[in-house]
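Are you able to produce any protein sequence you like plus the matching backbone structure tokens because I've never seen that pairing?
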Amino acid sequence: MSSPISSQFPNAPPAGKTAEAPAPALNPQPVVRARSDTVDLTLSERVYQLHTQGQRVSQIASSLNLSEAAVNSYLNISTNR
């Protein structure tokens, strides 16, 4: 005994017709990354980190758009002679 396929799959398209592609999602949402792998450092922490990596005061000042006096201040370096 056999039964028609349409009775086994009621949501299938009629024979000879193909199913329509699903409509694209409206307003796709951006992918949100977990922030567990990043750390936000304060400016003073960034200055200290670059200094411990061996960068000179002038390099740190340039890369962080600070004056050398500001970098020296963050590092507690006195320029009085």
